[in-house]
Prior knowledge:
- Chain A is about 80% helix and about 0% strand.
- Chain A contains 10 helices and 2 strands.
- Chain A has helices spanning about 1-15, 15-35, 45-75, 80, 90-115, 125-150, 155-170, 185-190, 195-205, 210-240, and strands spanning about 40, 45.
- In chain A, strands 1-2 form a two-stranded antiparallel ribbon.
- In chain A, strand 1 (about 40) and strand 2 form a beta hairpin.
- Chain B is of the alpha/beta class.
- In chain B, about 35% of the residues lie in helices and about 25% in strands.
- Chain B has 11 helices and 13 strands.
- In chain B, helix 6 links the parallel strand 6 (about 160) and strand 7.
- Chain B starts with 13 loop residues before the first strand and ends with a helix.
- Classes of the chains: A mainly alpha, B alpha/beta.
- At the A-B interface, helix 1, helix 3 and helix 4 of A face helix 1, strand 5 and helix 3 of B.
Amino acid sequence: MRTLMRLEVLRMLRNRRYLLFTLAYPVAMYLIFGSQSGDVDGTDVAAYIMVSMASFGAVGATLSAGVQRIAAERQSGWTRQLRLTTLTGRQYVISKLASAAVVGLPAIVLVLFTGFLRGVRLDPWQWGVLVIALWFGSFVFAVLGIGLGYLVAPDSAQPVFMLVYLGMAVLGGMWVPLTGFPQFLQDIGHVMPTYRLGRLGWEVLDGRHPRMSDIAVLALYLVAFTALAAWRYRRDEQKVAA
Amino acid sequence: MTITAGKQTTAPAVALAGVRKSFGDLRAVDGLDLELHQGETVALLGPNGAGKSTTLDLLLGLSRPTEGTVALFGGDPRDAIRRGRVGAMLQSGGLMPDVTVGEMVKLARDLHPRPLPQAQVLQRAGIEDLVDKNVDKLSGGQAQRVRFAVAIAGEVDLIVLDEPTTGMDVDSRRRFWGSMREQAELGRTVLFATHYLEEADNVADRVLVLHRGKLLADASAAQIKARAGLRRIAFDLTESVERYESTLRALPGVVQLELGGTTVRMRSDDADETVAAIYAAGLRPRGLEVAGLGLEQAFLAITQQADEAEGMEIAS
């Protein structure tokens, strides 16, 4: 189990293209969009977009750790071979989660650090709570990634990932604050897990702790996505290569 | 037959009872009853599409039978696997992407409750020189050897291999079967699927012939070879062969006879005796040909025998 976790993480770090995409993309987006000045509902725009892009990066890293890698592992037959070892389904999922969490953390920290370099100033507790809240919140997307990795055919893993990732990011107000959207899009946005994740951080910028309601909604998503992942994992268990 | 070797107290390594598996209309496995005893080396022989891989999937608990029961060591296959009693190498099973061979083997050992030393596993699989190579860059035969290493990374009681030598060169094949024999000598039950009769003959104590999801034969390698070792004999006579039919049928070894014009075609399980008897009967064959049957034909021969037997059962 230790070797499995170690290798899961190592494989992520070895894949340069993957790292570049998951870590550099949100930083680049932040550099492009974060230079505006003004405020969003009283919060400084530069700080607001920093949190949006840190959440965006965390979602991308944790989601792709599941979807694309599991799809590839199913294609190579590795998931099937793993079933012939003493590893239980739960251990497998935990090791996947752990490796997703390991890339999720630098995705958050890098954007926050870039924000700091560009002059965003917060209290030490705010930086700390931001990192922890966004990191823990991103586990929801790691589980969603595992479920989707088992749900989609290996060939369509990439487009499905992009669709789900960018779709949830835009609808959840990670690119453009929801306040600029028409009402019905705002209503959709409010139920998005991405919006709830972002708001964990936006609240911290205003000097408040993350809202319990956001934590509760994310917890509900976590339960739902875990059920999806468990269901698909069991389905895959029964499937037979003809 | 109820001959049981050794103590009766130990549960059979593998027990299948009335197992059927259907995919839609296709009956991939059609009523399989089978017991493998501990320490046996058994070949599962059959042409492509015979149901070998499906049988192994069922046996390993990767899929559930439509009907019937499957037990490993007297219990659920998943239990045996979770306790690390089974090492398996499937055609559809793969390796973890983006890691080296050494890391892959280490992982397999780490996941096993009774791992063997790394050096020993590498040596048995003959992959010492591949340790630092990325698993995604292996040739077909090399990948097979690494997958074998994964299957034998720990102390197991049952080893299941699905066409293990596919893609291996002659030398790798020999090494592979050498280490397979070692495993058998250690008292492990080995079950391997193959479509090479020679492999079954060289390694297995017992050969199961599977065809269209049914078990056609369960015998020693020598017996199967005798059945598959039929020879085809063909020759011409100067006159119509019809009138010699009874003489020809009475020849020793003849299992099948086909007459057409001046041509005789027959299959014999003892070609030497048959040919000697042809001359002894006073016949003067021209253009005599004696040829061995290919494996496909041997299967056909065995299948035909099975079909005929079935036909007779229905008739009686």
